[in-house]
Here is the input.
Amino acid sequence: MSTVQPVILGEMPSLSKLYVNAAAQAARRRLLGTHDAADLPAAGHEVRDVTVDVANLTAYQHLVGETASDVLPAGFLHALAFPVAMSVMNRDDFPLPLLGMIHLRNTVEQRAPVLFTDVLDIAASVAHLRGHRAGTQIDVIAEVRLSGASLPCWRGVSTYLAKGVFLPGIDKPTAPVQRQDFTAPDPTGVWQLGVDTGRAYAAVSGDFNPIHLSALSAKALGMRRSIAHGMYLASRALADVGPVRGDSFTWDVAFDAPVFLPSRVALEINTAQDAAGSWKRSDFVAWHPRTGRRHFSGSVSGL
Here is the structure.
């Protein structure tokens, strides 16, 4: 990537190995107390000549409700780049603990369509280490380019929070948090999510984080039940916006509260048009239909 020196990896990192290493790293840090630096890695990671498995793409499209197409969905590209992003956060010089990170926000620019036949280069780095009232947050930046190209077709920025981790030299925000009141509107759709939703998304994304897989594995990490992957929920909302979004768009999602499985999720999508009557933007919000608690919200806008 342009702002860091890339380390070229020989193959796509294994998420299962990364999670095991993260657990070992967390144990070492608890023992040695190494949360004492606020410096980010000077290097990013890159994997070149990545190809897509068609069966996996088809399974992903079916799971999130995307129309069958030769074009890779934006959420699929996030999942494709996720192991590279995770490998940067798994470095010994990464200052925050990988396990327990909370996904706060995701912003994607889909600048051009990517076909399943394209050969891709995928790069990731971290930036903008900053304070949060509950800990420290950071941006993880991933880019997907056509092999050998200089500019990305897809760019994603994921913001994560290391709750309870306060690094020296990183100031906590002093301004009060402005919380917007939320009143649940009439839904345009309701999703019924089974207890196996996390395992189904893990099978197509490779993200086998234990908090998503079963009540037993989630309880071992302090959760009362397993929770749905945030990017599964966001990708399903994007699919519900539909092909009206075209091939180039920005996709922004903010996560408020986890979806415990099994669950029902209510969703509202509002679409705005320009003066000529063409699609301009779709806003979406999802909440628990019984309690009215908001799970996430976001928008899709044309570039």
Observations:
- The chain has a mean pLDDT of 92.
- The radius of gyration is 19 Å.
